[in-house]
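quick one
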Amino acid sequence: MPRTTRRTVLASLAALAATRLAAHPARALGSASALDPDWTTPHPPYRIAGNLFYVGSRDLASFLVATHEGLILINGNLATSPVPIRAGVEQLGFRWSDVKILLISHAHYDHCAGSAQILKETGATYMVMDADVASVQSGGKTDFHFSAHPEMLFPAAKVNRTLHDGDAVRLGKTTLTAHKTAGHTPGCTTWTLETAVLSGRAEPSYKAVIVGSPNVLSSYNLIDDPKYPNMAADFRCQFATLKSLPCDLFLGAHASYYGMLEKYPSLKAGSTANHFVDARGYHDFVAERQQAFETELARQQKTHTASHPS
Ligand SMILES: [Zn+2]
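structure w/ zinc ion:
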């Protein structure tokens, strides 16, 4: 299909998947019966570009950054995920014990329940954005929204370094930047890095963006949540940040954000174009998610005004 049409289709698919995720509280709550099968269905590990690899499932993304000083892993995912993540790392030819740094997209069990086990097995240093540290260290018991939902809790893990907006995480010659993109959780993090140019490969360095989550869960109160009164302002700030980030490689905490399953076959087929290089898809996704946020905010404001007449 023509390139622009394909892009539009991919952007629509990614937006649709994100909407599907945001719109189902049962899925967000994660009761066993409501778990998206794609969260636990394996996906072959692969090199995305340069020194950046994918080791997640069909939907729960986990990324590996390889450096001469060791490995950085982004997202430990579910409590059952460390075994398949480790298998992916080893299948790519790396050693599990070389994972030196563990990072997350945000403090929800689908991205950090596996952290405690990974830290125990690898001895990696755990680095988490300031406003998500308490939740990570309490196993979700201090989460502003889900603390009363036992099915949302996860094994607590000790954080070794507290990150702040704009902090750099360095290993070998690679630097990742932690962008606080709050709203979905108060310490939700979007990671950026420039991929390394590998010798012998005719491939440039790419600017990668790994989106933390721009989604308003359908049970969220954007107007006056006493535990998170600044949520709407944080979301606005998040969208301003996301729009400002230079992006070649469009990636995210869920593969569905960036249409991985639709893009992967071309990479596997050895296409000369890397379809994960998708600045247009990234900006379309951010714009669509911002519109969804504004629509939900307007809906909640209307309901709030009706129930609190002046
Ligand atoms: Zn989440």
